[in-house]
Amino acid sequence: MNNSILIFGAMDAETEFLISQLSNVQKTETGGYPFFEGNFGNKKIIICKTFTGMENSAAATAIGILKFQPDCIISQGTAGGHDPILHKGDIVIGEKLVNVSSLKTKHYGKNQGIHPEEWEINDWDAFENDGKKIPCLYSSPSLVEAAMNTEYIKGKLVKGITSSSNNWNMELDRINHFVKTYGSSCEEMESYAATQIANRFNVPALTIRIISNSEQHPGEEYDRTIGQICQEFVLDVIKKL
Fold it and tell me: pTM of the entire structure?
């Protein structure tokens, strides 16, 4: 039974609505990270604004787990679309998470050039993708199942692979390389780190990301307001936990 849930969002646009839905809210701050503790139905919910980036996410996750000892964590918010089948407003449940900034290059000497298409992810676990081992982390299967069984009518709801890094990729060839090589559904800057730290503490973790923009589809530019739709879905998921 998940009666205490720690939820992360990097920005106000990814946390404000969630905080507004809590009762008996108490705000505390540790290490510069604000935590908002309150009630949603019969559950204790803690919302943390982690700020952007993998290091912030890792630090906030460790602090949140030690401070509140939650039953599970949810990393949620907006993401840039990678898979061309996804459009603004679609939600990706991150079954697998890949750190696309953890790269190993092949050896080339001076003046032999840069070969980013040959860079390989060098990381912890692995999953099979077209017969190749791809390093990744995994969301909790039971939490993924609960999210996938939650109704969502404002777009597609898919199980996918979330790419995390401290990069904002806008080169379509690079994005398509991630899709082809790693099966990437979308990109963001926090979930891999949150999941990695949660795994260290044996706390089940789930990633939920809504597509807010996509280089695959001209005109689907970043939309700050779409973060609330993701937060509304997260609350629907919480009701099932």
Answer: 0.94
